[in-house]
Amino acid sequence: MVRLPDGVAIEKALTHGIPLAELVDTLELLAETYDLQDLDDLSTLSEPQVAKLAIKVLKKNGGLHAQFVELLPDGIAPQYLEQVVEAVIESGKHELTGVKQL
Q1: What is the rounded radius of gyration, in angstroms, for the C-alpha atoms of the chain?
Q2: How wide is the angle at C-alpha 63 spanned by C-alphas 62 and 67, nearest 5°?
Q3: From CA 20, how far away is CA 81, in angstroms rounded?
Q4: How much is the pLDDT for 12?
Q5: What is the pLDDT along the chain (102 residues), one digit of tens a residue?
Q6: Of 22, 57, 61, 89, whose CB count within 10 A is highest?
Q7: Can you spell out the DSSP letters for the chain?
Q8: How many whole angstroms separate alpha carbon 47 and alpha carbon 90?
């Protein structure tokens, strides 16, 4: 099992560390693809506002986590997701058991 840091919900884990332009593009594509009406003009928002809105959108539309990740541009991955994959690979090398805290 890999445990996210305290205070990090899956939505924050999926959006944290994504550059603003890619986050905006992905949210706009998500809104267009899934007909989401709750996104304002993202170009008028600051980076913290976009990050907060992204978390809200993913929470409110609970079934779009995988779709959000799938719509990210090639080469862009959430930082926590990369850490989770690395932790899983590393734990398999040493046959660790139990919980891995990021």
Answers
A1: 15
A2: 120
A3: 17
A4: 86
A5: 667 777 778 888 899 889 999 999 999 999 999 888 767 688 889 999 999 999 888 888 767 899 999 999 999 988 877 777 787 777 777 665 666 665
A6: 57
A7: -EEPPTT--HHHHHHTT--HHHHHHHHHHHHHHTT------GGGS-HHHHHHHHHHHHHHTTT-HHHHHHHSPTT---HHHHHHHHHHHHHHHTT--S-EE-
A8: 33
Residues in the chain: 102
Q: Which residue has the tokens 């398999």?
A: 92
Joined tokens for residue 95? 């046959």
